[in-house]
Write a structure and sequence with these properties.
Length: 157
């Protein structure tokens, strides 16, 4: 669906904007999205739940047979992107969270996913991205020595 894909494009623009300020952290946060997507593909192979559009009409074209419903990949990407953006920039994070909810909701509204597909996708994506962000934060702290001297410059009058 064009609307859901547009939201994913908004996330890409946010990552690009944050790249100018955070460089490596923004790239690694984006890697969390890729890892979350990979985890969701493995879960899909294990669960193999058919889509609701197979048994009832939908507003969007039903994906091919074998493209499983649980969890929603769009929701995984949305949830992981929102969490990664949240760790980089709180204001963008709020915008990304609203976009993630809209993207996930649209998948149910058009009839290609069940509610539990998108809730699981948002949760899975957010948890994986959060884990990557925590590891990134620990790695960054380990590279910055705590005993570094603090330099205080005297105030000029």
């Amino acid at each position: 669906m064009i609307g859901t894909d547009a939201v994913l494009f908004v996330f890409a623009l946010m990552f690009l904007a944050l790249w100018f300020r955070h460089r490596l952290r923004a790239i690694l946060a984006g890697c969390g999205v890729v890892v979350a997507y990979g985890v969701s593909e493995v879960v899909k192979l294990v669960v193999q739940e058919d889509r609701p559009c197979r048994t009832r009409p939908s507003l969007a074209e039903c994906p091919e047979v074998g493209d499983w419903s649980f969890p929603s990949n769009h929701s995984v990407i949305a949830g992981s992107s929102a969490m990664a953006i949240w760790f980089l920039h709180r204001t963008y994070g709020w915008i990304a969270a609203v976009c993630a909810l809209l993207a996930a909701s649209s998948r149910v509204i058009v009839g290609v996913h069940y509610v539990h597909d998108v809730l699981a996708g948002l949760t899975l994506g957010a948890l994986v991205s959060w884990g990557i962000a925590v590891l990134l934060d620990r790695w960054q702290r380990s590279r910055t020595p705590d005993d570094a001297p603090t330099v205080v410059m005297p105030r000029l009058r």
